Amino acid sequence: MPQPRILILRAPGTNCDVETAHAFQLAGGQPDVLHLNRLLEAPQLAVEYQVLCVPGGFSYGDDIAAGRIFANQIRHHLSDVLQEFRSAGKLLLGICNGFQVLIKSGLLDTDDAAGPAASLTWNDSGCFMDRWVGLQTEGDKCVFLSGINELYLPIAHAEGKFVTRDQSALKRFEEAGQLVLRYADVGGSVQPFNPNGAEQDVAGMCDTTGRVFGLMPHPERFVDFTQHPNWTRREDRGEGVGLALFRNAVRYFS
Ligand SMILES: NC(=O)CC[C@H](N)C(=O)O
């Protein structure tokens, strides 16, 4: 396959769609930005794509809870088409608000017989946090994190605290190898290295196949060295480390 096609799904209030399309383009993909209403009108449009990405922002103004309305649109109207998308061996990515959407839509395999067993809620600080964080990957399950050990990326969220219903749910995700990205004291991180109080320092998780991935940090905001907060004092003049995630997605289809 020459160039995988990427569907960037936006809703009212999404604000990272253009940067995310740019990152996929730099990585060699062919992105299209599509309004959620277009997909609701014609769900089969998704069949044309290899990767579906829900970008960051404030979809529907974060009303009710961040990502909730977008996630309910998926649960009630797009669940079949997106489950088929996943079963066909394709990739789904949710960045920040996109992670909130994926986790609340059930696409990250967090539901059980009693309902949703994981979510993202208000930061411990009660504030919107906008800063850079150190991150460490775990295991080799997640397609997007293949070959990546550490990352340094920006976060910008108010509702990024990963929570589970109870210890047994947490254990289930851990044993399935789904907790693949954690805040860590690496690569220039500031204290506290866990910015929001997330359980087990979880910053991102994948589904049980490793092909659906959501993360709170923004890899699309570090694709060029000039986006690093200290770039004028660093020797690194290459691409930003965030680009590796998008390259992994594109490479998966070549
Ligand atoms: N950058 C984002 O995607 C923000 C996510 C969401 N609006 C929050 O504040 O938690």
Folded structure, characterized:
This protein is of the alpha/beta class and 254 residues long. The model has no long low-confidence stretch (mean pLDDT 97). It has helices spanning 17-26, 36-41, 68-87, 97-105, 167-175, 243-251; strands at 5-10, 30-35, 51-54, 91-95, 111-112, 115-116, 118-121, 129-137, 150-157, 161-164, 181-183, 202-206, 212-215. The radius of gyration is 17 Å and the shape is globular. It has six helices and 13 strands. The chain has one domain: Class I glutamine amidotransferase (GATase) domain (Rossmann fold), CATH 3.40.50.880. Helix 3 packs across helix 4 (97-105). A hairpin with a 2-residue loop joins strand 5 and strand 6 (115-116). The chain binds glutamine. Glutamine (GLN) binds next to strand 9. Glutamine is lined by residues 56-58, 62, 66, 96-97, 128, 156-160. It comes from Bythopirellula polymerisocia.
